[in-house]
Specification:
319 residues, mainly beta, eight-stranded mixed β-sheet, three-stranded antiparallel β-sheet, 36% strand, elongated
Length: 319
Amino acid sequence: MKKYNIIKMCSQLLMAIAATLFSTNIIAQTCDFTVNNADATGGDTEYFVELDAAGNIANVTPGPGPITITGVAPGSVVEVLHLVYDSANPPTNVPPTVGADPTLIDGCTNDFLSARVLLECLCEEDEISATYVPGGGDMLMYFLIDPATGAILDANTTGNFGADEAVGDYFVQALSYDSANPPTTIPAVGGNISDFSADGCYNPDFLGSACCAQKIVCCGDCDTQPTVDLPCDDGNDCTVDDVEVVLDCDNTIVCTPCAGTLLDCATASATTTQPCEDGDPCTMGEMEVILTCDGSICEPCSGGVAPPTCADAGAFPRN
């Protein structure tokens, strides 16, 4: 029968992450996460390592954190490892580098490969669901947990918690244990993850690994979601009442670009009458009508009259 080593420090790791992992987006198109570990033990050098879809290192951030991971798209999962080791006795292949295989880091470290944190971005209407493949044990239980308090919100044997959770953060953790040597205390709904007795024969990554499912209000698209008209400036001086159409749930998503009503020469109060010069030196008093916003001509320069001449002398009063 396969036995498991119990890693007591994992419960400290989980609670440290749970206390400082949160979302910063409430209504958005992406999820933001902040992860910290204030209780690192086992060495003086630490890194947070993000993995890509192939399981290789995608990003490396020196500890102690916190680290912020932003712009995670709905339906995406980011996997984070927390590596700690003694700089006086480092393992191989450190410091970790982008593109490397983290499983090749070998030597004296914390059990970082068994303390994975999965950050999953979900829309509010999506199901929270997880699948865990245990390394042994004939019993399997999934727990839905409030990361801020450790309270157990739900538990089942399938890992599917449905889609009725509100916007916010949730942990999903899987307990695999041997029915012939079970933990003395297995938490129940309404209890707390800290109720776990951490004895018996169970998977050592139960307390050290978790999937954080973050639910956000996904706005969808302009064809299916409510929109709202907002005032704007289209940069054209010859338009008025500029408006753009945006999603009501996220005003940064533009459905119809900013545009206004175009002014023309027939628009009331849009023109200016001003003196001009028609180029004829024998006329005076010319006027033109322009579109005030850009100076374009509505009525060409005209209306000038010939100035008085000597022939008109009889028309002037004499002293």
